[in-house]
Amino acid sequence: MSEKKTEADVAFIKALAELLQENDLTELEVMREYGDDDSLQVRISRVVPVAAPAIAAPAAPVAHAAPAVPPAASAAPEMPEDPAAHPGAVTSPMVGTVYMQAEPGSDPFISVGTAVKEGDTLLIVEAMKTMNHIPAPRAGTVKRILVEDGAPVEYGAPLVILE
Questions:
Q1: Longest dimension (CA), the chain
Q2: I need a surface site. Which of 18, 26, 87, 154 has the fewest CB within 10 A?
Q3: 122, 141 Cβ separation under 8 angstroms
Q4: Are 101 and 148 members of one domain?
Q5: Pairwise CA distance, residues 152 & 22, whole Å
Q6: 130, 105 in Cβ contact below 8 A?
Q7: Which residues, at least 6 apart from 120, have a Cβ–Cβ distance to it below 8 Å?
Q8: Average pLDDT, stretch 25-32?
Q9: How many domains does the chain have?
Q10: How far is 70 from 21, CA to CA, in rounded Å?
Q11: What is the percent of the chain with per-residue pLDDT over 90, rounded to a whole number?
Q12: Domain range holding 18?
């Protein structure tokens, strides 16, 4: 009996690992309850190797290309590559799904060029069937929207650039 349960648990963990990979998540935690005193708590996480190549890749080309390419041209690509480093970046406080409007078919909370006040809702991040309104941390103008409606986001992922 416990062997069947173990096989089912292994299949469950493999399915969670596939979910992690397919949705490009870095961490997933689930508790599976079998009965009163019987449960399984699983936490799966992975290291995303994107950060190391992103740091290593620009270092070599910039060192070799700096004499041939003007500094203004090499500075322009850096902004789109790492919007999280922008001082006006608003990042996701949680893992979830982004929604740009309160309900399907309604107007989006923001668009590029929208002036917002501190505390205005920029978008919603749904996490575990809870709709979390993401407020503007300060007054400003929306310069860039870095996510699409319905897209999954990670903790700390840049959502919007305010200036």
A1: 70
A2: 87
A3: no
A4: yes
A5: 11
A6: no
A7: 109, 135, 136
A8: 78
A9: 2
A10: 39
A11: 28
A12: 2-45
